[in-house]
Amino acid sequence: MDALWLFALLVFGIIALPGMDMAFVLSSTLADGRRGGFAALAGLVAGGMAHVAMGTLGVGLLLQALPAAFNALLVAGALYVGWIGWNLWRAPGALGEVGAGSSRTASQTFFRALATCLLNPKAYVFTVAVFPQFMHPERGSLALQAVLMGAIVTLMQVGVYGGVALGAAGLRRRLVHSADGQVALGRGVALLLIATAAWALWHSWQRA
Angle 22-28-29 (CA atoms, 0-180°, nearest 5)? Predict the structure, then answer.
């Protein structure tokens, strides 16, 4: 798993980029304080674990059914990641205005965050595109590799979104009202995605 550092960097960049999940944590914290923010974080972590499990299952089934197609999946995933990076470079995402929202119980916030994560089709496509780039069937159990990558995803979510929940007011002012900061962050993540796509294409060429 010598590329885990690159996977961790990629996941951090994606999670730190202002978007729907971060907006949900912000709005939940503004509405219900840290309790709401942490409930939203728990729901997003649970959704992230589900994405990891489904992505790993998909890779495993593909290797069983069509082993020769794995390298084709690597190439397709790399091109998809590069395409995301290019589009993000051209139009960096913005967080937008975040309202305080209506008050909810912790369980309501948790399940709403979980549903928001699980109903995001882009997350499934991204997981299927990215995970094969960092999974090496020749190095042993895919399940163990998935556990390691899932732990990285969880740690990044807790670090980034937990920080958002702890400092929601200050982060809201900086992220919502600093257009230049959002553009810089978006383009930084875009470069990271493009570099990861190039690395994945090189990796798939070596496998071929």
Answer: 90
Q: pLDDT digit string (tens) for 110-138?
A: 998 898 788 766 676 677 777 777 877 77
Residues contacting residue 159 through CB under 8 Å, at least 6 positions apart: 12
Residue 208 within a domain:
no
CA–CA distances in Å: residue 13 to residues 2, 9, 19, 117, 156: 19, 6, 12, 17, 9
Domains of the chain: total: 1
In this prediction, residue 38 has a pLDDT band, given cuts at 50, 70 and 90, of very high
21 vs 25: CA distance, rounded Å: 6
User: pTM for the whole thing?
Assistant: 0.70
Residue recorded with tokens 């990044």: 156
Longest pairwise C-alpha distance within the chain:
54
The string of pLDDT tens digits covering residues 41-91 is: 999 999 989 888 877 777 666 666 666 666 666 677 677 767 867 876 877
Alpha helices in the chain (DSSP H): 4-16, 20-65, 69-90, 106-118, 121-134, 142-166, 168-177, 179-207
Does 98 reside within a domain?
A: no
Residue 61, domain member (yes or no) = yes
